[in-house]
Amino acid sequence: MNFALHGAPVSPGITIGRAHLVSSARLEVAHYAIPDESVPAEVFRFDAAIARAKQDLSALEAHIAADAPQEFGAFIELHRMILEDSSLSHVPRELIRERKCNAEWALVQQMETLVEQFERADDAYLRERRHDIEQVVERVLKALAGEHGLGEPPLAEEARLIVVAHDLSPADMMLFKRHQFGGFVTDVGGVTSHTAILARSLDIPAIVGLHFARHMIRENDLLIVDGIQGVLVVDPDPLVLAEYQLRQSQHELERKKLRRLRRTPAATLEGTPVELHANIELPQDVKQVHEAGAQGIGLFRTEFLFLNRRELPSEDEQFEAYREVARAMDGKPVVIRTLDVGADKALGLDSPALAPNPALGLRAIRFCLAEPQIFLVQLRAILRASHYGRVSVLLPMLAHAHEIEQALNLLRQAKEQLSAAGARFLRGIKVGGMIEIPAAALALPMLMRRLDFLSIGTNDLIQYTLAIDRTDDAVAHLYDPVHPAVLQLIAHTIQTAGRGGTPVAVCGEMAGDAGLTRLLLGMGLRNFSMHPAQLPAIKERILRTSLEQAQPLAQRLLRATDPEKIRELLAQLNA
Ligand code: PEP
Ligand code: MG
């Protein structure tokens, strides 16, 4: 069936490929009718999946280590028995024939019947066996989903696969970073959630907030992801497909043209230089930074080194990661942000119960000051890396003077410890702070007095100014970077920092939005940090900007209080 869904575009570009459904497959299987003539093929598909699940179990058995606990072998034996029992291996075949439904649906229907029976058993051992049934069914569902297990398609096919998920955490996205998928679509999520930010950094088309995509799409459906308009087309007809293929090649051509600007210095039409830096999550991203021709790294989100693991990275492991980046940047500036965990970037440790409002809880600098030992390890690792490049430290989510004082005290302690151990580091390492909370923007002199530079994190600044959870698609329509309150805070920060001689950058998503480049330039911003993939388009916009024209328009826009007037002036700026 051919249909289209609309969501929020988060990473531009167009991709055409096959759906790869990702989830804890079990309860989320699609239900669809099978035409009479296809029923035997569906039964065959089911039998093949059962056979495949059996093979998987045999392979597991063959790989059991000699010293593995005995229970492991017993568990495989039990799963094999469940798989071979006719209630699971035959009844679903009957259901497919009788109800003319897909194999997944038939299997889950039968699983539910069995689980109910087991739940009613008096014997506790038997009641517990429902979990084994669920696990076996999951194995068969995975086999039905394709030759490969969920989340692990073979490399050659990846580029043509589009990941379809209900939701993906930033930690999930980090796992996908190792693969080369063609695109991502999710039911939920906001455009500045860290999941969306990671999709942008992977530079593949993505859409969030599609609501029921995960339920409506089947494994292997042909999909078009239009990450520019936020449109997902399922099972397109040939005309639509041809139209999108054309748009895809035009988009690629545009990007190629932009890449030619790599070595052109960023400057306005008057010749005013503008610094363009890159945001990264892992050391391996530096390759893209060079390809984009960035002048430095304006934001290294170090927390991504801490996700998807049960133990914290040691000081040496962190040092090596930071040193790798410092060295690879070869004397260009590298701003390393200290751990910004919490909210949607939870650590995988056995952490305490979830905070009632994680975005307002023990996040970022608050977490680090509450866990000084973890913070000290990171500060020492950053300091040690500072010997190998132009490294500086950036503190996230500041709101209080005492947070800066405490952080600086810990930095002093880290320096003393390193000196005592004879380690080399940059003694005068610069320390900056992020402006992400309205309180910080409004009490700027308090921060400027204690810090060497500022970086405006517009993602959180918008979240906290407009009181919208950036991960919640139910309020995503309220996300508005040109809300007068947001613009006042940004303009005030740029002007006040400029007057005080404190360097200021923007490293939130606004910096990578070409529709806002002229406005930010007109507001006085001269330092932007963004995903490497966004850099060429921003540079091109700068090269075509006259400050003489942009400044008065931006000032008029800042005085406007009516959203319509603001949009009209923005359109004039971008004309
Ligand atoms: C921001 O909040 O704008 C920012 C750059 O930090 P993060 O997106 O990692 O919270
Ligand atoms: Mg932030």
Structure description:
This protein has 575 residues and is α/β, with parallel strands linked by helices. It has three domains: 3-23 and 150-236, Phosphohistidine domain (Glucose Oxidase, domain 1, 3-Layer(bba) Sandwich), CATH 3.50.30.10; 36-144, Orthogonal Bundle (Enzyme I, Chain A, domain 2), CATH 1.10.274.10; 264-573, TIM Barrel (Alpha-Beta Barrel), CATH 3.20.20.60. Helices cover 48% and strands 13% of the residues. The protein contains 25 helices and 16 strands. The strands form two sheets. The protein has an eight-stranded mixed β-sheet. Strands 15-14-13-12-11-10-9-16 form an eight-stranded parallel β-sheet. Helix 4 (91-99) crosses helix 5, helix 22 packs across helix 24 and helix 24 packs antiparallel against helix 25 (563-574). The longest helix has 24 residues, at 39-62. The chain is globular.
Describe the secondary-structure layout.
Layout: E1 3-6, E2 8-11, E3 14-22, H1 39-62, H2 70-84, H3 86-89, H4 91-99, H5 103-119, H6 124-128, H7 130-145, H8 155-158, E4 161-165, H9 170-176, E5 183-186, H10 194-202, E6 206-208, H11 213-216, E7 222-226, E8 231-234, H12 238-259, E9 275-280, H13 286-292, E10 297-301, H14 315-328, E11 333-337, H15 364-370, H16 372-385, E12 390-395, H17 401-420, E13 431-435, H18 438-442, H19 444-448, E14 453-456, H20 458-466, H21 484-500, E15 504-506, H22 514-522, E16 527-530, H23 535-543, H24 547-559, H25 563-574
Helix pairs in contact: 1-2, 1-4, 1-7, 2-7, 4-5, 5-7, 9-10, 14-16, 16-17, 22-23, 22-24, 24-25
Bound molecules: phosphoenolpyruvate and magnesium ion.
Magnesium ion binds next to helix 20.
